[in-house]
User: Which sequence fits this backbone?
């Protein structure tokens, strides 16, 4: 999914926040958290405390807390953080959540590792801002710490992965999404219409695709090394038709 912040707050992940978990109920978060553990093992790092960057409603944070990590997370959307806090409170999960912008944040503490899943960083629309996000993450990590994140690729956007529809009459939440990809700006604008019972609402999301070499250069500039990229959910290198890539890096 995508997000377009503006001066009045995020235009996206606002109205949809209370329904986000319902919308994502088919997302294999358990497999994703296992894959995260595999990537940590592959890096040969053993963190105790984790920072979930762009944590949304905290689904990954909760699973990783259950694995025995200390977890904290932040997100730009107040609505998503409200949901994350509500869930953590009702499940008695000690997770700190904050509203913050990944492109410039200061949480006042450091973590053994940071991660960002589900193409959250594609929502950062300008390379300078993604660079700032990598600098901000780096400031929160000591030398030797792990930074793992995923990014959708231009291939995914070109192949219209955002054109999706769920119109089953018996489902609580129905939606129709249409994406418009611009090959020259490398941005996609996705118009999302949702129906929940008798309510209808819309969100407009925007994402940007980043070239692999640019991502690596930005990571290096922010002070990361041992940079590896994988065809998502495998340990294989990305291929021409990878729709998502996971990056692993170590803070130098
Ligand atoms: C598709 S959701 C993924 C949420 C979560 N990582 C998950 O796996 O469910 C993308 C999230 O990125 C957040 N986001 C987008 N831009 C952000 C920014 N600049 N800083 C912090 N969060 C941001 C959105 O508010 C949204 O919650």
Assistant:
């Amino acid at each position: 999914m995508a997000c377009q912040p503006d001066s009045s707050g995020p235009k996206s992940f606002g109205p949809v926040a209370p329904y986000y978990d319902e919308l994502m109920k088919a997302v294999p978060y358990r497999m994703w958290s296992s894959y995260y553990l595999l990537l940590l093992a592959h890096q040969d790092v053993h963190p105790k405390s984790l920072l979930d960057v762009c944590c949304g409603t905290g689904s990954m944070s909760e699973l990783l807390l259950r694995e025995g990590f200390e977890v904290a997370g932040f997100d730009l959307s107040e609505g998503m953080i409200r949901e994350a806090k509500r869930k953590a409170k009702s499940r008695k999960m000690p997770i700190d959540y904050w509203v913050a912008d990944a492109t410039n944040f200061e949480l006042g503490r450091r973590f053994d590792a940071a991660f960002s899943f589900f193409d959250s960083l594609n929502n950062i629309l300008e390379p300078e801002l993604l660079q700032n996000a990598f600098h901000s993450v780096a400031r929160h990590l000591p030398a030797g710490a792990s930074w793992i994140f995923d990014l959708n690729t231009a291939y995914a956007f070109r192949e219209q992965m955002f054109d999706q529809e769920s119109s089953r009459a018996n489902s609580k939440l129905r939606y129709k999404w249409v994406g418009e990809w611009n090959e020259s700006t490398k941005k996609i604008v996705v118009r999302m219409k949702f129906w929940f019972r008798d309510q209808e609402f819309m969100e407009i999301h925007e994402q940007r695709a980043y070239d692999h070499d640019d991502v690596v250069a930005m990571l290096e500039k922010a002070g990361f090394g041992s940079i590896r990229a994988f065809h998502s959910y495998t340990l294989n290198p990305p291929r021409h038709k990878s729709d998502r890539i996971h990056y692993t890096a170590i803070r130098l």
